[in-house]
Amino acid sequence: MSTRTDAWVLHAGPAGDGTSRSAVRGTLSREIFRLPDLEDDEALVEPLYGSWEANIDHALSRQPIDVCRSRHEDPVILGNLGVVRVLRPARTGPSAREGDICIVMPFATRDRHGYAELVYAYDGAGIGILAKRTKLKADLLLPIPEHTRYSLPQWAAYARYFTAWDNWRVAHSCWLSQMDSQHAADALVFGWGGGVVFAELQLAQRAGFRVAMTASSDARLAFLTEHGMTAVDRRSFQDLRYDPESTGDNPYHLRRYRDSEARFLQTINTLSDGAGVAIFIDNIGSPLYRAVLKALSREGVLTSVGWKHGMRIHNLRASACIRRQLHVHTHVWRYGDSARIRDYQEDTGWMPTIDVDAIYDFDDVPQLAADYEAGKFETYFPLFRVNSV
Ligand SMILES: NC(=O)c1ccc[n+]([C@@H]2O[C@H](COP(=O)([O-])OP(=O)(O)OC[C@H]3O[C@@H](n4cnc5c(N)ncnc54)[C@H](OP(=O)(O)O)[C@@H]3O)[C@@H](O)[C@H]2O)c1
Question: CA dihedral defined by 192, 193, 194, 199, rounded to 10 degrees?
Fold first, then answer.
């Protein structure tokens, strides 16, 4: 018997001319959606809390792709990271039991080593958790620890931590491959971005590095300081945006850019005793790339999982080779590491603090989408509530 569910859905945008410039931002609409029958390896679940992730915003802005069109599905239900309760377990395969509370592993397709290729309910197939009921492959359900010390909203923010764990594992190994005789305490790990960078910098802190992160609000700067990081106010270099196609041609923009870049590089100089950044975590992309490369030390590692403001970059290979700089790119995490990362979180308290009063109700999801787009959050871990616990 098929199940109908109350859901926020996204429809395909206009065809456009295939360039990102022609993309028209989509809106979520509240509809009754008919869930296809459960396959033998699928479980019926009710989402409890979802995490508002950048991938949902990328899907709404249809940047860099219109996920409905690329998946040939209309509509789609987004939302791939959150806490769900199992209502009906899968009939075959590994399965969580009825009533188990699980976090969702967002793997639509993975390569033969277990790394994500397409992301579930985003660029890959799958019905997301912006719905009162949904169905999931049972092997995407990872139960939270039975006697966990942490709340469900804290668990709901896991994905930025899992992504950070995987990126840090690779970036740190790369740095050590050339710098095994340098003390971490003398090396600066610097990042800009959101929750992924924050979580990753906590791992850098634990590994003994100096850490610093930018933010653009007093509340976030205070939050970073409370967590023992050097907080850098990026409002003091607000013209740090370089567009290779236009900035150089406009003397006014170029001058403003250069002023901001000089202030930024002076900050890095001070924080690193003149050495530059040992590991730069940059999930913002193109407009900051020039400044990132200037800030990076010799033998430095530039590491990324994101391209929030642009994915096309221009690289001088000779310069990168001569300076022995390593560039790391990762995506999601390795499926087989999922339980290990969850246990690391539980065992070591690598967990966010969540203000439950700031969690959005299901009815308010469009407001959440608008607030995220406008950058209105104090938290790095915005959440929505789907069903009551
Ligand atoms: N490939 C993957 O597996 C994966 C996984 C997770 C995330 N990502 C990507 O990584 C990116 C970041 O995601 P997230 O969830 O950590 O953060 P997020 O929620 O996207 O927040 C990004 C933050 O970056 C800061 N920012 C915005 N513009 C900036 C600029 N010009 N310079 C410096 N900082 C700027 C803003 O904070 P302030 O204004 O306070 O500075 C903003 O809140 C996204 O593009 C996302 O798609 C990729």
Answer: -50
pLDDT in tens, 271-286: 999 999 999 999 999 9
Q: Any idea what DSSP says for residue 110?
A: E
CATH topology of domain 161-329: Rossmann fold (3.40.50)
In CATH, what number does 3-157+352-385 get? 3.90.180.10
pTM equals 0.96
Q: Is 194 in the pocket of ligand 1 (CB under 6 A)?
A: yes
Which stretches within the chain are classed as H helix? 54-61, 67-71, 152-156, 158-179, 195-206, 218-226, 251-271, 286-295, 317-322, 338-348, 365-373
In the chain, where are the structural domains located?
Answer: 3-157+352-385, 161-329
The pair of three-digit structure tokens given for residue 263, joined into one six-digit string? 């202030």
Q: Is the peptide bond before 89 cis (omega within 30 degrees of 0)?
A: no
Mutate to test the pocket of ligand 1, among 284, 289, 290, 304 (most ligand atoms within 8 A of CB): 284
Which of 109, 125, 172, 134 has its CA nearest to residue 332?
109
Question: Per residue in 180-238, pLDDT tens?
Answer: 999 999 999 999 999 999 999 999 999 999 999 999 999 999 999 999 999 999 999 99
**Atom nearest to 197 CA in ligand 1:** 16
Measured in Å, residue 293 CA sits from the centre of ligand 1 at: 19
103 Cβ below 6 A of ligand 1: no
